[in-house]
Specification:
Blueprint (H helix, E strand, L loop, with lengths): L1 H14 L4 H5 L8 H4 L3 H20 L4 H7 L8 E2 L13 H4 L5 H26 L8 H26 L21 H18 L14 H14 L3 H12 L22 H5 L13 E5 L13 H5 L20 E2 L2 E2 L14 E2 L1 H4 L18 E2 L28 H8 L3 E2 L24 E5 H14 L3 H14 L12 H12 L5 H8 L2 H8 L21 H6 L12
Antiparallel strand pairs: 1-5, 2-8, 3-4, 6-7
């Protein structure tokens, strides 16, 4: 909570010599919490600010290392850092990196409490607002529910990552140096209360003011996951069922406008095509992060940069020509392909993700189709005798290639759900530079089915769990699973097939108690096997500056740090 403590210390220093009359004055010619949220438009702007902060924190790359760890899921069973698997960041080596002063891990503590403070300020303002500004009580409760959602959603991250953390439910307006770590049960009780209020007061699907705003379905989805984290399995089933049985449905037919850059497509490709995430016809979207292109306040997403292989760095063909000539822009060839953009291999799928989970349905599961996972890459230079041939490193003279770079950084299976082939609006000389302007799913109904399946496993009902999993597998044209084969590991396999690059795997594995087991079993980082994970890494370290600033109360570090 450094942002509160340091900021308030400065504020106190400024006003300490002022008299009480000054302290009682209200700001008239500048915006402050006291006057920013006195109208519905002002409160709406506050809600927009929460969306913007959440987008920047969890779905933006301002802190690239933290983004790659949390959104890219490196250091889990599904991915490792491909650009430099033997480096000193992006969780290639848990033991060396995961410390209480490393910004990769302090970032999410500090950023999360900024969101919580932002939400609490808005919650307080709404609760104190004049009833006359609202058309009715339901309008007020809709805005309040949305602010409460962001507070609950943020604690949904903090607890699995850090364990017991301070439960802050009021805006902090003065120096506070006596925080304590609250019991997880107390935190989850507050999260449940916030989300239940949301489920009762947020708009239904299609009733929200704008695409991307929070709806009842999003609150119920997160509530179901929070119940799972507490082994409240029947409550998790009930909350997930309200979503599944509501005005949502898995997309099973082609829809929207999709660029078939590799000559084919299917409904899974449609789900991730530019412009399709927020369509009214898309009944699968629960909450979509809005990435608005080329407008003031808009943003981009490093989809290709993070998940794609850095093919353009691989050097020459076996006969000595540049391997990728690229696109012709302003009379020169760029070295980059518009179908691939400019990735830098931040996130390399493990062999488990890239190969193992597809073996039983390699040719029929549409999620493994050539347009959804690009596995074949071709030399692109007419001057070479190898032009248009599939890249095969065995064609090179023995000893002339670096095997680790070839397979971890330059060429590996490229999951296309975060790419936008042939549709880049900026940086044409680098085919978009690794950034695109597609929206991003924060929550999708496919995951709701798998959450409910996990709850059914908790209840011992693998028959119903299999039915939910098979709703996903049937859409994918994959072989249905038998109830006898369903357990938590199978659900994790299905989550990897369906949600790779979408779910926060660090949260999922910690919730299931599977982090150590699965990382040690499946993370094939070639330099640091299993990313050198240690038993105590099941929790992130508490930032040391939080402990140091908390001078008026003990604040224990997590074990092992």
């Amino acid at each position: 909570m450094k942002f509160v403590l340091l900021g308030v210390v400065v504020l106190i220093a400024i006003i300490s010599s002022c008299n009480s009359d000054i302290l009682d004055e209200r700001p008239l010619d500048f915006l402050a919490p006291e006057n920013s949220f006195e109208t519905v438009d002002g409160i709406r702007q506050g809600i927009t600010g929460l969306h913007a902060t959440a987008r920047t924190t969890w779905y933006g790359s301002a802190n690239q290392d933290a983004f790659v760890i949390m959104m890219g899921n490196v250091g889990t069973d599904v991915a490792f850092h491909g650009e430099n698997p033997g480096g000193n960041n992006r969780l290639v080596n848990y033991e060396a990196e995961m410390t209480s002063t490393n910004g990769q891990f302090t970032y999410y503590w500090e950023s999360s409490y900024k969101i919580i403070q932002q939400a609490n300020i808005l919650i307080d303002a709404i609760n104190k607002s004049d009833d006359d500004i609202w058309s009715d009580a339901s309008e007020k409760n809709r805005f309040l529910a949305e602010a409460l959602f962001f507070r609950a959603w943020t604690y949904r991250f903090l607890v699995p990552l850090y364990g017991e953390v301070p439960l802050v439910t009021e805006a902090i307006s003065s120096v506070k140096t006596d925080f304590s770590r609250d019991p997880i049960a107390d935190i989850y009780a507050q999260v449940e209360e916030d989300l239940i209020f949301g489920a009762e007061n947020l708009p239904g699907r299609g009733e929200e003011e704008n695409p991307g705003r929070i709806t009842k379905g999003a609150a119920l989805h997160v509530l179901s996951e929070v119940y799972l984290a507490q082994s409240k399995f029947q409550l998790a089933v009930d909350a997930a069922s309200e979503v599944i049985d509501g005005p949502y449905a898995l997309m099973t037919e082609r829809f929207g406008s999709t660029i078939e850059a590799f000559g084919s497509g299917d409904v899974f490709l449609d789900l991730f095509a530019y412009g399709n995430h927020s369509l009214e016809a898309n009944t699968e979207a629960l909450w979509v992060i809005q990435i608005e292109p080329l407008i003031a306040g808009g943003s981009s997403f490093p989809g290709e940069r993070a998940w794609g292989p850095a093919y353009f760095r691989m050097g020459n063909t076996p006969d000595g020509f540049q391997a990728f000539r690229g696109e012709l822009v302003n009379g020169s060839y760029t070295g980059y392909q518009d179908t691939l953009s400019r990735p830098v291999a931040w996130v390399r799928p493990t062999n488990y993700t890239a190969y193992d989970i597809w073996k039983s349905d390699w040719d029929n599961d549409i999620r493994n189709a050539k347009h959804n996972i690009k596995r074949k890459f071709y030399f692109d230079n007419p001057e070479s005798a190898f032009d248009k041939q599939e890249i095969d490193f065995s064609l090179y003279p023995e000893g002339t290639r670096d095997g680790i770079r070839d397979t971890c950084q330059y060429i590996y299976p490229y999951f296309m759900k975060h790419a936008d082939p042939l549709n880049h609006f900026t940086d044409p000389g680098r085919s978009g530079g690794g950034f695109n302007h597609k929206d991003v799913y924060a929550l999708r109904l496919g995951e709701t089915y798998l959450i409910r399946a996990e709850a059914y496993v908790g209840l011992g009902n693998t028959t119903l769990a299999a039915a939910d999993i098979n709703a996903i597998r049937n859409r994918a044209n994959a072989t249905p699973v038998d109830a006898a084969d369903v357990d938590l590991d199978y659900i994790l396999d299905e989550r990897a097939r369906e949600l790779y690059g979408e779910e926060f795997r660090h949260i999922t594995l910690r919730r299931m108690g599977k982090l150590l087991e699965r990382v040690r079993l499946y993370n094939n980082n070639p330099i640091y096997p299993a990313c050198n994970i240690q038993d105590h890494n099941v929790l992130f370290p508490i930032p040391q500056n939080q402990i140091d600033l908390n001078i008026d109360a003990p604040f224990e570090q997590n074990p092992g740090y």
